[in-house]
Write a structure and sequence with these properties.
- The protein is α/β, with parallel strands linked by helices and 244 residues long.
- It contains ten helices and seven strands.
- The chain starts with a strand and ends with a helix.
- One of its GO terms (cellular component) is cytosol.
């Protein structure tokens, strides 16, 4: 199960933070590290600060975009120090986040996403996530180093995994009952946007309405079967509109 839990670091500036994050991961049984356009990698400093987790650094997958990093994941949780304008489901307690992440990881890939050292994830990157999580800290000084944040959330994930009964890992859920991947949700939102524009409901391709609907479906968390039903409805509306 733990290999299904992916740690994604976006545009890490200091290579030492990659090594320190790998060390934090390994202590909690995680080994799936993905790097999105790191500034400097590979680098000896990353290897040095891994301190026993060099294998995670050596096997880290480097990709060119956050979309590529999480397209096959059914849940993507962005670690964010503050709420954003996009009203995604938000976990105030990391323990609650870890329970749902581990439950989904039994059958499918999931991801925890961490942003840049200085300013975290952008709003556009948060839109690639299904949820957000914040780490409660001193309100007068709530600044965590990147690897510290990875350590805190990796610990919560490991603790949630240890507390699940063995029976949860024996019988996989049917595919249609599982959450859709981010790629499947993306195809649905593209389909929905196309239908809305064709009907005249939305006249601008980047209208706020589309963002609000994406947030709505993120909160609803439809299954793959339910998403297929919605896409069938959209296809039917398209056929009716195009009929002579």
């Amino acid at each position: 199960m733990l290999p299904n839990i992916r740690i994604v670091l976006v545009q890490t500036y200091h290579p030492g933070n990659i090594g320190a994050s790998a060390r934090a991961m390994k202590t909690m049984g995680l080994d799936n590290l993905v790097l999105v356009t790191p500034r400097c990698f590979p680098d000896p400093e990353a290897t040095r600060l891994a301190a026993g987790a060099e294998d995670l650094v050596d096997n880290a997958r480097v990709v060119g975009s956050l979309t590529e990093a999480v397209h096959d994941c059914v849940q993507v949780v962005g670690a964010s120090a503050r709420l954003r304008s996009l009203p995604l489901p938000h976990f105030d307690e990391p323990a609650d986040m870890a329970e749902t992440l581990v439950a989904n990881a039994v059958d499918d890939p999931v991801a925890l996403v961490f942003g840049r050292e200085r300013f975290g994830l952008t709003n556009d990157e948060i839109r690639h996530c299904s949820h957000q999580v914040s780490i409660p800290a001193n309100p007068d000084y709530g600044i965590l180093n990147l690897s510290q944040a990875v350590q805190v959330l990796a610990y919560e994930v490991f603790r949630a995994w240890r507390q699940r009964p063995e029976s949860d890992f024996r019988m996989p859920r049917p595919s249609h009952d599982r959450p859709p991947t981010r790629a499947q949700l993306g195809h649905f939102h593209d389909h929905l946007a196309r239908v809305m524009r064709a009907s005249g409901f939305v006249t601008q391709p980047h209208a706020r309405t589309e963002e609000q609907l994406q947030a709505l479906f993120a909160r609803a968390q439809p299954s793959r079967k339910e998403l297929s039903l919605l896409r069938g409805l959209l296809s039917s509306l398209e056929r009716d509109r195009n009929a002579p």
